């Protein structure tokens, strides 16, 4: 895989703030107004229970470990990105209003969400100190009436002001949930109370739709954050406010999300088709379904998901060109097409994760793997954690360390990987992502430990060792990828065959040390270019999309004139070291360039730098 030497990373990266932070920590700044008891409090549980119980319950962050490709990329996310937050700049707009631009306030909350997840998983003390510093400073900037934005008084609730409060809430509630920090929940309540007072249909109240861009969707996407606040604060007025947000969509000036999706079944024909904002509202609607059980909410989310998955998804598992959904099957993939905003990738991942949790159905699990291995990791520079705003399928990646929406969103998506990988399903264990590592899953049959040994996705062999706290009968659900031609799992001398796109459920009596040997066929597949690339083909291997990478094909003069020589393809392993390639996977393909035979080398899209996914078909 595209690995890196973590030890050498600090020297390779500019803007290290660690020594200053270490001084702050030494001075006890991180503790601030909080007592030690709060600092070390256990993760918080919800104050109210949901109406709908999840059918897939992610394994807790603590106590699990993911190594291999996914583990390396999470480490890069921590070391290269999260620990390098420019906290002075992301906090300044709150401390000296107005901020330098309209949405500068979103970054503090986005960081807190990614950092809370990553700290729960890693226990990294440097990250904890930085997270405490950001949370404490953010809370200190809150005005007495609860306002925690970056706008001067006369500009309040214009442009992206509600949006910024959404990210304050998401960040502070995540931080509270992870650490038990009480001031973070108090500050969140004050924000929620201010929003409840300010917006509504009562006398003197403002219209939420008029308070945000993109047909009001930027403002109403505070829905997800308000459901979270309701869940942890327990005050019913927050839930009432969520129902107001959903009703506001139907106003004459609103985005009509429910009516439009019900009538057209099309995200492209709904509101202004802005991908990130619309999917953010749908993530909120999924949360509201969990809290209320209103079936219309789930149906709406599923309708949108199905339309995106069928008509609007790039082969890399992201959506949007120039930040908007395009018409059915129109998927321009060049650098000039502004492909797959990073924020849209992460919100698509969150939407899909919501549906996996709510339904336990395998098509959502399948999509999570696809988006993680391609669009999500493809937008991260594996050397230093820099992030691409857009990630073309043909062209050059342009990762940056700066401050923009996607540089703050992508680390949130990467921080979610342990929540996507495995969990409880039907009172047993479900494996969604195959990766080396271990996990403990709580079920009604006791705690079940799973140890996983594999080089996946480089090869398709996985050995799971099952460690139930006591011998017990329970189902082990193994996701069988939709793309595999052959999948088998062998345990206790018995072989089980998987059906592609389904869970293979092995329901038996398990005892400590039982081993499951899994064999997933990774035979490469050729994908047709569709209406946008009718002359093109792409090649996938296992969960990974491959790319014709310029730097490992120095003899190729014209990538665009190159492709496989035959309609069916075979790949042979190439040696990345010999190719001086930064990744750990590379494959030789019998190809052509401008009609002449030429050996081509493909690498995973997630590792590629200058490349083409769409090659000339044979
Ligand atoms: Zn973005």
Give a description of the structure.
- The protein has 618 residues and is an alpha+beta fold.
- It has four domains: 160 residues, no CATH class; 160 residues, Glycosyltransferase (Alpha/alpha barrel); 96 residues, Immunoglobulin-like (Sandwich), CATH 2.60.40; 92 residues, no CATH class.
- The chain is 37% helix and 19% strand.
- It contains 19 helices and 22 strands.
- Strands 3, 14, 15, 16, 17, 18, 19, 20, 21 and 22 form a ten-stranded antiparallel sheet that branches.
- Helix 16 runs antiparallel to helix 17.
- The longest helix is centred in the first third of the chain and has 19 residues.
- Bound molecules: zinc ion.
Helix-strand blueprint:
Blueprint: H1 9-12, H2 18-26, H3 36-39, E1 56-58, E2 65-66, H4 68-81, H5 87-95, H6 106-122, H7 125-140, H8 161-179, H9 182-198, H10 217-220, H11 223-233, H12 236-248, H13 257-264, H14 275-292, H15 295-311, H16 342-359, H17 362-378, E3 394-396, H18 405-415, H19 417-421, E4 422-425, E5 428-431, E6 437-443, E7 446-454, E8 461-468, E9 472-479, E10 487-491, E11 494-497, E12 503-510, E13 514-520, E14 525-528, E15 536-541, E16 544-549, E17 562-564, E18 571-573, E19 587-593, E20 596-604, E21 610-612, E22 615-616
Bound molecules: zinc ion.
Q: How many separate helices?
A: 19
Q: β content, as a range?
A: 15-25%
Total individual domains: 4
Shape: globular
Overall average pLDDT:
93
Major sheet: size, sense and barrel closure? 10 strands, antiparallel
Quickly give the structural class: alpha+beta
Helicity, as a percent range:
25-40%
Low-confidence stretches: 1-41
Ligand roster? zinc ion
Please tally the β strands and state the result. 22
C-alpha end-to-end distance: 29 Å
Radius of gyration: 24 Å
């Amino acid at each position: 895989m595209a690995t890196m030497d973590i030890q050498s990373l600090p020297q390779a990266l500019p803007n290290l703030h660690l020594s200053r932070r270490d001084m702050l920590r030494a001075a006890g700044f991180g503790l601030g107004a909080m007592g030690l008891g709060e600092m070390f409090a256990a993760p918080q549980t919800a104050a109210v229970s949901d109406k709908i119980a999840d059918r897939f319950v992610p394994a807790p962050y603590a106590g699990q470990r993911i190594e291999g490709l996914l583990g390396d990329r999470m480490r890069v996310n921590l070391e290269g990105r999260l620990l390098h937050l420019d906290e002075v700049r992301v906090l300044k707009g709150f401390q000296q209003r107005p901020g330098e631009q309209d949405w500068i306030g979103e970054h503090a909350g986005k960081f807190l969400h990614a950092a809370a997840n990553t700290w729960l998983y890693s226990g990294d003390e440097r990250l904890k100190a930085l997270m405490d510093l950001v949370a404490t400073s953010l809370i200190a900037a809150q005005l007495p009436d609860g306002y925690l934005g970056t706008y001067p008084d006369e500009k309040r609730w214009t442009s992206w002001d509600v949006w910024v409060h959404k990210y304050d809430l998401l960040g502070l509630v995540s931080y509270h949930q992870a650490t038990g920090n009480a001031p973070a929940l108090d500050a969140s309540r004050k924000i929620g109370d201010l929003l409840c007072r300010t917006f509504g249909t009562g006398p003197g109240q403002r219209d939420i739709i008029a308070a945000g861009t993109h047909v009001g969707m930027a403002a109403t996407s505070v829905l997800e954050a308000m459901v979270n606040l309701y869940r942890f604060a327990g005050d019913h007025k927050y839930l009432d406010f969520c129902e107001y947000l959903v009703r506001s969509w139907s106003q004459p000036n609103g985005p009509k999300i429910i009516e439009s999706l019900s009538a057209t079944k099309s995200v492209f024909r709904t509101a202004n088709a802005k991908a990130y904002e619309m999917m953010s509202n749908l993530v909120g609607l999924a949360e509201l379904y969990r809290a209320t059980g209103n079936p219309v909410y789930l149906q709406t989310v599923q309708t949108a998901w199905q339309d995106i998955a069928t008509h609007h998804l790039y082969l890399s598992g992201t959506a949007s060109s120039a930040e908007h959904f395009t018409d059915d099957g129109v998927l321009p993939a060049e650098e000039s097409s502004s492909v797959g905003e990073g924020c849209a990738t992460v919100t698509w991942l969150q939407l899909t994760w919501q549906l996996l949790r709510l339904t336990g159905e395998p098509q959502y699990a399948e999509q999570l793997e696809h988006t993680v291995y391609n669009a999500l990791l493809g937008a991260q520079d594996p050397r230093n954690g820099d992030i691409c705003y857009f990630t073309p399928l043909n062209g050059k990646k342009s990762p940056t360390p700066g401050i923009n929406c996607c540089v703050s969103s992508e680390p949130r998506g990467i921080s979610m990987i342990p929540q996507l990988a495995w969990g409880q399903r039907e009172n047993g264990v479900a494996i969604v992502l195959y990766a080396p590592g271990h996990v403990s899953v709580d079920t009604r049959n006791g705690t079940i430990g799973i140890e996983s040994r594999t080089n996946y996705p480089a090869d398709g062999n996985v050995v799971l060792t099952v460690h139930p706290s006591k011998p017990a009968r329970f189902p082990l659900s193994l996701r069988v990828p939709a793309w595999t031609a052959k999948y088998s799992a062998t345990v206790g001398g018995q072989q089980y065959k998987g059906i592609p796109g389904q869970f293979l459920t092995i329901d038996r009596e398990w005892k400590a040390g039982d081993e499951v040997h899994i064999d997933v066929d990774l035979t490469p597949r050729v994908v047709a270019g569709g209406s946008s690339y009718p002359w093109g083909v792409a090649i996938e291997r296992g969960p990974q999309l491959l790319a014709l990478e310029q730097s490992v094909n120095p003899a190729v003069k014209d990538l665009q004139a190159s492709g496989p020589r035959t309609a069916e393809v075979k790949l042979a392993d190439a040696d990345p070291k010999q190719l001086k390639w930064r990744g750990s996977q590379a494959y030789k393909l019998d190809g052509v360039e401008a009609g002449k035979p030429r050996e081509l080398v493909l690498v995973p899209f997630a590792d590629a730098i200058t490349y083409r996914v769409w090659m000339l078909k044979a």
